[in-house]
Specification:
Largest sheet: 5 strands, antiparallel
Oligomer: single chain
Radius of gyration: 18 Å
Strand content: 15-25%
Distance between the termini: 26 Å
Low-confidence stretches: none
Structural class: alpha+beta
Number of domains: 2
């Protein structure tokens, strides 16, 4: 159980189900609006392609994509929206959509780029 789930459970115990759940829903929607986009890099072992994308919740996005690509691996992420910049940089290596045919050198370049924003 995450720290947020523990806090939510304590809040419900303290204030009751109705008020507790109303507050939790408000808090979740507020938090999602306040969280900025993060950029991520995933690797699909099945296809050999890398996915460059952005999301407010990278772990949630990973689980969604993994449902479609069971051999998916998390590579890296950063707390800044640089998705478009990366898409433009790797335009010549684009396969389809947000999927790219990157080399090991390209992946290291992305990781270094991400490290600049940590």
């Amino acid at each position: 159980m995450s720290d947020i789930e523990i806090a939510e459970s304590k809040f419900i115990n303290l204030f009751g189900n109705e008020l507790g759940n109303d507050f939790i829903e408000f808090f979740r929607s507020y938090r999602k609006r306040k969280i900025k986009q993060s950029t991520y890099l995933f690797f699909d072992k099945g296809s050999g392609y890398y996915k460059i994308g952005k999301a407010k919740d990278v772990s949630e996005r990973y689980n969604i994509v993994k449902g479609m690509c069971p051999m998916l691996e998390f590579v890296a992420s950063c707390y800044k929206d640089i998705e478009k910049e990366l898409h433009n940089h790797f335009e010549s290596k684009k396969s389809t959509g947000e999927w790219f045919n990157l080399t090991d050198k390209d992946v290291e370049w992305v990781k270094n780029k991400f490290n600049n924003y940590k």
